Structure prediction request, 609 residues.
Amino acid sequence: MAPPNGVSSVVLPLPSAPEERQWVMTLKRLARRRTALFGLAVVAVVILSAVGAPLVTVFDPIEQDINQRLKEPGWRNAAGQAHLLGTDHLGRDILARIIYGSRVALVVGLSAVLISGVLGMVIGLVSGYFGGKVDDFFMRLADVQLAFPFILLAIAVIGVLGPSLRNIIVVIGVSSWVVYARVVRGEVLSIREREFVQAAIALGSRDGRVVLHHVLPNAFTPWLVVATLDMARVIVIESALSFLGLGVQPPTPTWGGMLADGRVYLSTAWWLATFPGLAILVTVLGINLLGDGLRDTLDPRLKI
Amino acid sequence: MRSYLLRRLWQAVLVLFGVSVVVFLILHLTGDPAALLLPPDATADDIARFRKAMGFDDPVAVQYLRFLKGALRGDFGESLRHGEPAMTLVLERLPATFQLAGAGLLLALCLAIPAGILSAVKRNSPVDYVSTVVALTGQAMPTFWLGIMLILVFSVRLNWLPSSGRGGLEHLILPAVTLGLFTTARITRLTRSGMLEVLGQDYIRTARAKGVSEQPVVWKHALKNASIPIITIVGIELGTLLGGSVITETIFAWPGVGRLSVQAIFNRDYPVVQAAVFLLASTFVFLNFIVDVAYTWLDPRIRFH
Prediction:
């Protein structure tokens, strides 16, 4: 053992090897759940096809061709290329637009979750660790946030600021912190009373050190579960905003925007509105199943 | 118990205060509410005159207090488009939204609680399997797509139900199903997990050991304790339903507050937007206060905290 060099020697560094093994074990346990594995597969497919979109489809998602508008699923063009899911009212391949549309969904989902996740983590740590007036303030703030119908607040603010990728990410990100803050706070409240934390405090660790080295690592697991499940919610909200015309603007393909276009042609061309919605459904279902699986493997007691 | 309720009441008032600040700030997000409220072709002169007339030159705190004074009396100014007080317009539409949200909630409770209980009692049976799959799908289904698909099948193809407007019961069915499905899915899963947890507890085993038959064990002993988380989620789901009404009403041209506010946002009719957001948020706060009161009645432990 290393010679004692004051207080900090008591804080043992986390051994890295067992931690690694723990992650492998978690993954193995996750893989044993068929639904979680299905979720993981869906998420992987969505991410891979979004990244490698030009490799997955030969069609351009933006270029219009009025001569081949509203063609049924499976229709082949003059060059013999099949439009598996048909074409839209401007002659664009629906599958290509769905694949490229996933980029907006994923970018908004990941960025907004990152913003709200970090914000909620910080608020939850501060609120739970310091308690008292600080805690009261943030928890009332959380109540205020939750009092608003989320989508209504989002469209009102974006209506004022104007729709753009950045505004959508910021608005969703800034207003989604509550669930993270609550879960992290709850976790902190229980961790704070544990002996190893009390020991660190008794030995004179500063607040910042206790929070960063002892509380944060333990609060990370529930945070990750919340973040995964929240990603699904954000994707639905992004498509709802695009559906209302307040998302990323055309010609950039978005799932919600495609649905809004398809709604006009509902009685003549059902495939326009059907497939983008299925894409949202399957993606969200996949993320939810993965999130449920993560929760059951990592933290079964977590109630979210 | 009285002190608990008083504390909750005080918290609700604080939250409403916060709500009023946010609603006030919506108009000040860009820094110049005058430019926001006037048509885009207004001259700089018009804007300056309007700004002065509306008092937008005053310090923000003064403006907020003026706003709050109005808001407390339900006065959010006149609609820029309809020339009527904004609050009157919103209040006219409120019954339609309550009807829709109420129907959605009723549908959810009627389907979800039996389905959740059945799932829990017959765990890992085909019934449980089907109900879980339906619930998972329902939770992942975007409201607006579900609405459109229901219109495609039941209005366009089968011609059974009207696709828009408010009228008799037939007008209510599709929007209520659309709005209620997500809540149904959530409550089903919660009821199932709550019942499973309760059914595994000692007092249930005791009741069974005493010879109480299965029906009263499930419906009386277990459900009563499993209902506490259900009541919590109902309070939260009311927010989901009020928010979901924004999308559902837009799809089905349902003349409620949600559709009014979406139209108002596109018309840049901000007094109406503020009145609608404030009213829906206050409704949510009020209903959740009621839920808290219901708690103290259901779970006596809370009274003594």
Notes: The two ends of chain B are 9 Å apart (CA to CA).
